[in-house]
Amino acid sequence: xxxxxxxxxxxxxxxxxxxxxxxxxxxxxxxxxxxxxxxxxxxxxxxxxxxxxxxxxxxxxxxxxxxxxxxxxxxxxxxxxxxxxxxxxxxxxxxxxxxxxxxxxxxxxxxxxxxxxxxxxxxxxxxxxxxxxxxxxxxxxxxxxxxxxxxxxxxxxxxxxxxxxxxxxxxxxxxxxxxxxxxxxxxxxxxxxxxxxxxxxxxxxxxxxxxxxxxxxxxxxxxxxx
Amino acid sequence: xxxxxxxxxxxxxxxxxxxxxxxxxxxxxxxxxxxxxxxxxxxxxxxxxxxxxxxxxxxxxxxxxxxxxxxxxxxxxxxxxxxxxxxxxxxxxxxxxxxxxxxxxxxxxxxxxxxxxxxxxxxxxxxxxxxxxxxxxxxxxxxxxxxxxxxxxxxxxxxxxxxxxxxxxxxxxxxxxxxxxxxxxxxxxxxxxxxxxxxxxxxxxxxxxxxxxxxxxxxxxxxxxx
Lengths: 226, 226
What we know:
The structure is a homodimer.
Chain A: H1 3-6, H2 10-37, H3 44-70, H4 75-92, H5 98-120, H6 125-136, H7 143-154, H8 157-183, H9 185-191, H10 201-221
Helix pairs in contact in A: 2-3, 2-4, 2-9, 4-8, 5-6, 5-7, 5-8, 5-10, 8-10
């Protein structure tokens, strides 16, 4: 089903506007934080890597914002309901050094990929194409893996500290997401399997579980057994 | 003359490496500062405008860095001599509010355009094509003009404060540039008319005068008679 057909249902339409608003502000906030965290970089090449991620997030923001305008929505208004959650997340998880910044960039990028993939399946073909296009350009966080590994090899105590940090990132992300789920009925309903199936809190829980599990596996692979 | 022919002269080659290093670090530093200043934006649309400029600067950085690598230079090493000047400039000119940030974005963007245009004429055809391509994608600062005008209309005292601010920006830019000119002989010699003509401090002074004059005219047009 394409957007023209799917958006005839006002609840579906509201859900997609919420989704695009949430993703757009998420990308804009990520841009800001990555650009800020780039200042912690020990070398200019490292700084350029994080700046590159930031710039990619900005282009994602542009695409999502433009799509909102295209379907006749005011982008700022669509983003507004999600500002507190993202700003809260970033405020609670300001990295205190470069390694924490790298782990955050990698974790954030990976969780975003997982979420985009989960949600794509539930969308009309036009919205799905946009979400997959943005997803396709994600994954710039991989450069962090090698550097974090090298730091742990050099000093194994670093691993313990970063493992705690990764848990805190995930905990804060979950707590902000649950706040959004509680507030935004249309979005939540769509996330758990389409409007027709009605709202099922257990299914939201399962989606969060899948994303958390993937995160835990990635952290273990990185040497951050939590 | 193209790069292959022109770069046979080691002094010209050194000058271009200096130039590309200076421009590359300037763009990277501008990215960082604009992304930082975007936090001062009163609305999300304003924030997005400044973030867009930042992202454009990052892409300029990438092109200049890639060109350095292409001609066999280590980009970090080429940028290093200019870090102190740019960092010093930005440290001395951190905007204290959104309007100062806007004026800085506009002034910085305009001076960069003027400088790129001045320098392009003195370059071999390959380097010139790169500099003009980057220049062509500059000019994102124009959005600031309208907003600064509206703020002065609403409260004319704002104009006085911002006029002083614009003077401080130009003063600091000149003082850092003069430091670079004094330190980097090959670059300075090229800037004033090509290697063949020898070094002429008066001509450097005239270039600075032209750029300062254009700046003063722009500020007056903006309602910032200094």
